[in-house]
Design goal:
The complex is a heterodimer of chains A (292) and B (548). By secondary structure, chain A is α/β, with parallel strands linked by helices. Chain A has a single domain (5-287), classed as Rossmann fold (3-Layer(aba) Sandwich), CATH 3.40.50. Chain A has helices at 5-20, 22-34, 85-92, 122-128, 143-153, 160-170, 174-177, 190-202, 220-233, 246-252, 271-276, 281-287, and strands spanning 47-56, 59-69, 74-78, 102-110, 113-114, 129-132, 208-212, 238-242, 255-260, 264-270. The longest helix of chain A is centred in the first third of the chain and has 16 residues, at 5-20. Chain B folds into 3 domains: 1-52; 67-296, no CATH class; 319-547, Orthogonal Bundle (MetI-like fold). Helices cover 76% and strands 0% of the residues of chain B. Chain B has 22 helices and no strands. In chain B, helix 14 crosses helix 21 and helix 15 crosses helix 17 (400-424). The chains are: A alpha/beta (292), B mainly alpha (548).
Chain lengths: 292, 548
């Protein structure tokens, strides 16, 4: 399977990325130069994996994943339960390190730097890659302190009040909470809590935003609010979202990766193409609901 | 016929066994509680002797106190359950706060001079301020320099140059420590003013935060000023009420101000619970009216063995004159020592085992052994204290420090286990969120795990302290005196403790008088102090559960 993915992926990625992204490439170069990254001038994908295997003890969770995730796009990862889509997401910011039995081999690069190199500090990596979890998990602190958490721990200089306000505005939560910044984040509704978590994740201005089924614990109204928000965030962030909801993937993503049982990446390409005309019978079966 | 059958046709499934099982379980739940209650009622009856009072005395208080209180409670309950709960809580708060203030007053009257206290606070406050200043420049100063500056500040302030390190090497003190400097000042304000100066501002600050919250400055200033005035009045007006200025200040600051602040906060911020305050008001007014009435009419009260003389006197050869004061003071000092020694170590171990320790065989061996240590009989810990501290380290037997260290070792496993439970109860989500934001382990522990588990840790450790306060065997083993006639003047002097004193009254002086009078009175005081301590844990736990 893995030898098919680059074929479907390369032309598609080139077509969508090239004509629209002239101004953004400049931004990328500036960011790369200031952060001292070795990415170079070529329009590399932000996240690139080659031959990525992940094992939990003896069990293989991901099997030779090759993928190129483009900048400032929403990339959705869909697939049935247990197909390794969350595992892949957690490889990107090395949250899997916290599981003792987890072993990773192969290459997974963020802007050309393999994040599993020995000289990569996972804490520093996570400061560049924000994450939003399945269950809303605000800290039992005030709304303000929740959003400012990343600013505090990362020693980010600047006007924290201003950054908190901007982050809450971008997370479409400001109007609802501006008068109660001192009250606990746990007093908000589920959908508000998830938007608070998104505000918290974007406050330190990460390069990539990972979302692990961010709307699965929310009601339909809150879900659609979060979906709108994700589409807006893609203007400034590279968003990778895991979802088991295919309609959601079709609605909000530019690119879609389909993982199937066994931890294989079966198909990766433009969302329209995946949903309308998938190459693989197994993907079509999955998308049309014949299995999974 | 057929339809009839179908309607009735579900039949019934027998639940007899299940019902029997359920009530057996209920009985199992209640049996211990019932027996302890019976015992306590029995002991309390012996200690307080309610039947020696004039029936008219009972009737008077029934009419002035019990009936109005029940009526006030019913009134509050009709308003809302919350109101009644607030009322009952404030009553308990007054009682517990007064008991704590009594204990604190004891320490400041007989053990710690107010000037020593002031010097100690200043010697801690100055380096703490230095530390805070250093930490706020955190991006510019490297950690090692920060750490050294902090340690140096504390060392200089507490010990001077060259301090104990120098005296080991035979160098005389060149620069006195801040502590010695303040303690040796030739001119010092009156002791009660020093107490008011140290206790008043913190209580006033917390009180004004509680009452005024985010509201206007005026409410803040007013509340703070009122609390300060109350504390000063405790010292200035205390002598007119027969209380010395220093205990007057302590009781006003710890015993009166917090409950008053609580009631003021309820009245100001929670209008729905305001009606609950009629309950404490009724109890206070009812008691005063009842006391005045029985006085005026000459109805004799009960011949209680728990009275002022018992609480403030020391042991005597006759049961009727025996007092509990040195034992209470000794127990309080022991508990403070235990808390200072066992809590940091126990909480540190718990955080290490839960957050840092790798999951390997070594950790699992430690795990099992901590659980085993919690079950080791206390007398064995006494033997450990005797062997380790007295025989090996040549400490004098029976001192406060020795007793505290031994009891600290005894409750250390319990502190570790309960603190681990609290740390483990922090949802994994919270840690993941923190790590996902790019926090280091230290930042996660400091910002998320400890704040979140703090009240749980405190609850467990206070309950562990409750075990220590009732221990007798280890104290006997380390040679603590059964009977002492005064409070120890410092940590390196021998002290008695409440359970030891009760043990002494029940064994060595086994005359009927001590059995019937001093022992029940001592037990009632011991249990009351234990409950006062545990009430903090209970309140914390309720608060913790309700915010989850």
């Amino acid at each position: 399977m893995s030898d098919n993915t680059p074929q479907t992926d390369e032309p598609a990625g080139g077509e969508t990325a090239d004509p629209t992204n002239d101004d953004m490439l400049v931004e990328t170069d500036v960011a790369a130069a200031t952060s001292g990254s070795t990415a170079g001038a070529t329009p590399d994908p932000v996240i690139r994996s080659r031959d990525l295997d992940v094992f939990y003890g003896e069990e293989q969770a991901l099997d030779s994943i090759d993928i190129d995730i483009p900048e400032n796009r929403v990339t959705a990862i869909i697939g049935p339960s247990g197909c390794g889509k969350s595992t892949f997401l957690r490889c990107i910011n090395r949250m899997n390190d916290r599981i003792d039995a987890c072993r990773v081999t192969g290459e997974l690069s963020l802007r050309g730097k393999n994040v599993y190199d020995d000289d990569v500090d996972p804490v520093a990596l996570r400061r560049r890659v924000g994450m939003v979890f399945q269950e809303p998990n605000p800290f039992p602190k005030s709304i303000y302190d929740n959003v400012a958490y990343g600013l505090e721990i990362q020693n980010i200089e600047g006007d924290h009040d201003e950054i908190v306000e901007q982050s809450l505005k971008r997370a479409a939560l400001w109007d609802e909470v501006s008068h109660q910044l001192d009250s606990s984040g746990l007093e908000l509704s589920g959908g508000q809590q998830q938007r608070l978590c998104i505000a918290r994740a974007i406050a330190p201005d990460p390069e990539v935003l990972l979302m692990d089924e961010p709307a699965s614990a929310l009601d339909p109204v809150a879900t659609s609010q979060v979906e709108d928000l994700i589409e807006e965030l893609a203007e400034d962030y590279t968003v990778v979202i895991v979802t088991h909801n295919m309609q959601q993937a079709a609605r909000i993503s530019d690119k879609t990766a389909v993982f199937l049982t066994g931890g294989e990446l079966v198909e990766f390409g433009d969302t329209d193409q995946i949903f309308e005309n998938p190459e693989h019978q197994r993907v079509e079966d999955y998308i049309t609901g014949k299995f999974g | 016929m057929a339809t009839n059958n179908e309607i009735e046709g579900f039949g019934r499934v027998s639940r007899t066994i299940g019902t029997v099982f359920r009530y057996l379980l209920l009985a199992a739940t209640l049996v211990g509680l019932v027996f302890v209650t019976i015992l306590l009622v029995y002991v309390a009856k012996d200690a307080v002797q309610p039947l020696t009072a004039d029936p008219a005395w009972h009737l008077t208080f029934f009419l002035t106190l019990v009936v109005p209180t029940l009526a006030a409670g019913a009134y509050a309950y009709r308003e809302s359950v919350e109101a009644l709960r607030t009322g009952v809580f404030s009553v308990g708060f007054v009682v517990v706060a007064l008991m704590f203030s009594g204990g604190a007053a004891m320490i400041f009257v007989d053990i710690v001079e107010p000037l020593t206290w002031l010097a100690f606070l200043l010697a801690l406050a100055v380096p703490t301020a230095v530390t805070a200043a250093v930490v706020s420049y955190d991006h510019r100063v490297p950690f090692a320099a920060q750490f050294l500056a902090t340690v140096a500040a504390f060392y200089l302030s507490l010990f001077g140059i060259p301090g104990p390190l120098g005296s080991l090497a035979g160098v005389p003190t060149l620069v006195p420590s801040l502590f010695d400097f303040v303690a040796g000042l030739p001119l010092a304000p009156a002791p009660w003013l020093m107490m008011a100066g140290t206790l008043g501002p913190p209580v006033a600050y917390v009180g004004s935060q509680y009452v005024a919250g985010d509201r206007d400055r005026r409410a803040h200033v007013l509340t703070g000023a009122a609390v300060l005035a109350l504390v000063l009045a405790g010292g200035a007006l205390g002598p007119f009420a027969g209380v010395d200025p220093v205990p007057g200040v302590v009781v006003a600051a710890i015993g009166l101000a917090p409950p008053l602040v609580y009631t003021a906060g309820t009245a100001a911020n929670r209008p729905t619970e305001r009606t609950g305050l009629v309950v404490p008001a009724t109890i206070v007014v009812g008691s005063l009216v009842g006391a005045a009435a029985t006085d005026a009419l000459g109805f004799a009260g009960p011949q209680s063995w728990v009275d002022w003389a018992f609480l403030t006197g020391s042991h005597s050869s006759t049961a009727a004159e025996a007092g509990f004061y040195p034992a209470i003071g000794g127990s309080i000092l022991l508990m403070l020592t235990v808390a200072v020694l066992a809590f940091p170590v126990g909480i540190g171990a718990a955080v290490y085992l839960e957050e840092y320790a790798p999951d390997n065989r070594f950790t699992r061996i430690i795990d099992v052994n901590i659980s085993n240590l919690a079950g080791v009989p206390s007398v064995v810990y006494g033997l450990l204290g005797l062997g380790l501290f007295v025989t090996y380290l040549n400490q004098p037997p029976g001192t406060v420090l020795l007793g505290g260290a031994t009891l600290g070792l005894l409750i250390l496993p319990i502190v570790i286990i309960s603190a681990r439970e609290a740390v483990r109860a922090v949802p994994e989500d919270m840690r993941a969120a923190s790590y996902g934001m790019g926090a280091t382990k230290w930042q996660t522990v400091k910002n998320v795990v400890l704040p979140r588990s703090f009240s749980g840790i405190l609850t467990g450790t206070i309950l562990a302290l409750g075990r220590a306060i009732g221990e007798t065997a280890p104290l006997i083993m380390i040679g603590a005196p059964n009977v002492k006639y005064s409070l120890p003047a410092g940590l390196s002097e021998a002290a008695s403790a409440m359970p030891l004193q009760v043990y002494a009254w029940s064994s060595l002086y086994a005359s009927d008088g001590f059995y019937e009078q001093a022992v029940p009175a001592g037990v009632v005081v011991l249990v009351a102090i234990l409950l006062a301590m545990n009430s903090i844990a209970i309140v914390l736990r309720n608060k913790y559960q309700s915010t989850e």
